[in-house]
Amino acid sequence: MDAIVDRHESGAKVLGAGLQQLGLAPALVSPLMAYCDLLVRWNRVYNLSAVRDPEAMITKHLLDSLAVLPWLPSGRLIDVGTGPGLPGIPIALAEPDRWVSLLESNGKKVRFLRQVCLELSLNNVEVIDSRLADHTPSQRFDVAICRAFSEAASFCQGVRHLLRPDGWALAMKGRVQAQELAGLEQAGVSCRWQPLVVPGLDAERHLLMMTGVVPAAGSN
Questions:
Q1: Any idea what the CATH number is for the domain that residue 75 is in?
Q2: Which of 70, 171, 184, 219 has an alpha carbon within 20 to 30 A of 161's alpha carbon?
């Protein structure tokens, strides 16, 4: 038990230092650690994440998700293929006034997401149990974000029906892959790579920011 407490306290210190580096409130440590604790516990049984070490989760999941905050456009956000809630749940905790929808079709992950929302009282979050192609929102979103898509053009094509005409499609990536953007600019999609600084992570991280994803009325 003492070892578990020590790991929790060590993780909280790592998270607190990371939040300070990102310019975020230290009050976020408690809810973010509660989320991480739930993920660690469920992960032992349901294999929700390939990252097993709790302290690694803080860097690779929590701080990685929060690093996008300075670049997020305002408005309603949908996290596509959210898995165990990344980056959507850390974003929702950091920005309680933003509406966040978590889109996921894996049953065990959906059950986990609903439990997180219940235990953390996330009133600004909805969990959508659906495949991307099958979900038709009653109100379109300002932002679609994803860590799961491997190819930018497929992501743009997949989220068009979710976004407002002036909406943003944001893909979290590692290294810049210029060839990914082939054909997107010709299709009217404006793209830029935004470097991300993730505290404690010794790896390249970028946010691919795309607008013009939804074709203008009357265009092919």
A1: 3.40.50.150
A2: 70
pLDDT in tens, 147-184: 977 788 889 999 999 999 999 999 999 988 878 787 78
Count the domains in the chain. Answer: 1
**What pTM did the predictor assign?**
0.94
Beta strands in 61-204 (DSSP E): 77-80, 100-104, 125-129, 141-146, 163-173, 190-195
Domain that holds residue 147: 64-211
Helix ranges restricted to H, the chain? 2-22, 29-46, 54-57, 64-66, 88-94, 107-119, 152-159
User: What is the distance between the alpha carbons of residues 25 and 42, in angstroms, rounded to a whole number?
Assistant: 27
Whether 6 is covered by a domain: the verdict is no
Q: In this predicted model, what pLDDT tens digit does every residue of 181-195 receive, in sequence order?
A: 877 888 889 999 999
Per the structure block, which two tokens stand in for 78?
A: 């949908």
Q: Rounded to an integer, what distance in angstroms lies between the CA atom of residue 182 and that of residue 154?
A: 12
Which pLDDT band, with edges at 50, 70 and 90, does 8 fall under? confident
